[in-house]
Design a protein that fits this description.
0% strand; mainly alpha; 196 residues; elongated
């Protein structure tokens, strides 16, 4: 554990790290968002005929979201690290692996509830990070707040929908992938150089 040093400017460390890595992270967000949106559209357009292929693509996309959380966590400075990102990354990777190996009949309801929990974790993490950034007077946190609220609203919708068929899971996965991709696009578009 690093001890707090009152003479060190942790906010400036965050700003310098952000400004240095912003373009790489923004590009990664755009690429992952595009993959998620494409996988979501394919999942919605081809629900039955090529379900196995789409299931594998969706699993890859969900694992990509988990990897994105690991990358985001590792790129944060020490005092701004959010361990919810690690938990969310682990849950995304586990859900992706589950989509790869388990038959649809066992995973329809479990996957849907897992998606809802993932969205809640992601939404709370984004709202928490936006709050901490606002506390340190970091500007332009609105897109992060909007993304967090969007994730929580989608989680509530997932919990309220009836989950009885593989077709429903297909469209739920499609909605998750497209909306997660859209949230990443919103975050990427809101990534500006920080100046105080």
């Amino acid at each position: 554990m690093r001890w707090f040093d009152s003479d060190f400017d942790y906010v400036q460390e965050l700003i310098d790290t952000w400004n240095k890595n912003r373009r790489k992270v923004r590009t990664a967000y755009f690429v992952i968002a595009a993959v998620l949106i494409i996988a979501g559209i394919l999942t919605a357009v081809f629900p039955i005929s090529i379900f196995a292929v789409i299931q594998y693509l969706a699993a890859i996309a969900v694992i990509a979201v988990g990897i994105y959380h690991f990358i985001t966590f590792s790129s944060m400075t020490y005092y701004f690290k959010d361990y919810m990102l690690l938990l969310s990354g682990i849950l995304n990777v586990l859900m992706g692996v589950m989509l790869f190996i388990m038959p649809v009949t066992l995973t329809v309801q479990v996957t849907t509830l897992l998606l809802a929990f993932l969205l809640i974790f992601n939404g709370v993490e984004k709202l928490s990070l936006a709050s901490r950034l606002r506390y340190f007077r970091i500007p332009r946190t609105g897109s992060l707040t909007f993304s967090g609220i969007l994730n929580i609203v989608l989680a509530v919708i997932f919990m309220l929908l009836p989950f009885v068929s593989a077709l429903a899971l297909n469209y739920i996965l499609a909605a998750y992938l497209v909306l997660t991709g859209a949230a990443l696009l919103i975050e990427a578009a809101g990534m500006h150089k920080i100046t105080l």
